[in-house]
Amino acid sequence: MDRDARLDPPDAPEHDDAGTEPREFTASADPPSAVETTDPTNTSDNDPPMREDRTVRLAVVEDDDEVGDALVEVLTDNGFIPERQTRGADLLLWHRRYDAVILDLGLPDGDGLDVLRQLREVSKVPVVILTARDDERTVVRGLRNGADDFIVKPPRLDELVARLEAVTRRAVTQLGPVATEVVTGDVRVDLIAREVEVGGELVFLTQKEFELVRILVERPGSAVSRELLMDRVWGDAFLAVSRSLDVHISTLRQKLGRPGLIATIRGYGYRWGK
Known about the structure:
Number of helices: 8
Strand content: 15-25%
Shape: elongated
């Protein structure tokens, strides 16, 4: 586990433009306390105020209680809605709930860099690594594995907040227009009405079947990984539901009756159209 850090006492002065020292976490050599996993579905009835006209929900993946609780308190005071996670597996399961992630690298169920690599297979959620590791190799690996930023403990508080604002702001500006209808040959997919027509005839699809179609038509002509499909339809890319995916794709092909419309990309996933 990374060496932990905690907030200065409440009366520690904040920095100002006159050149006083910025607020930061101070190192602690105390051993970590018992780990408790927070239910990510349990949110407060008194949400913090909106930040720049939108609420930013953060996953704080930190197994040390003292550090994690301090981060949650500070981020809440700064207008975010942080939720504590203690394991990488929790993040992989619940990542769709969050606008950004603060990720420690020393986790009880594995290396945070491996968690980041798996997360990037299914999600583009902004990730800020917060760790005591400061060697160049770890920094380079973290950024190349998909981290949006890398901060070494103890962080300067205002800098941490500013960096979180920056990565979430960039994520919002990268969002493009959302299509409401996709037409491929005589197949029409209405993403609003959640209907599929083939040759002008409505085709009945189950909820999971339509979700598979929706994800595939979001990027027509591009391969979509099995991990991404399983994550978004079944909720976990790393559960043993691969066979279920194959069965649903096979049933979809039969219902649509258009050979080649859903192509198999061997060893990777599937593609809608050519």
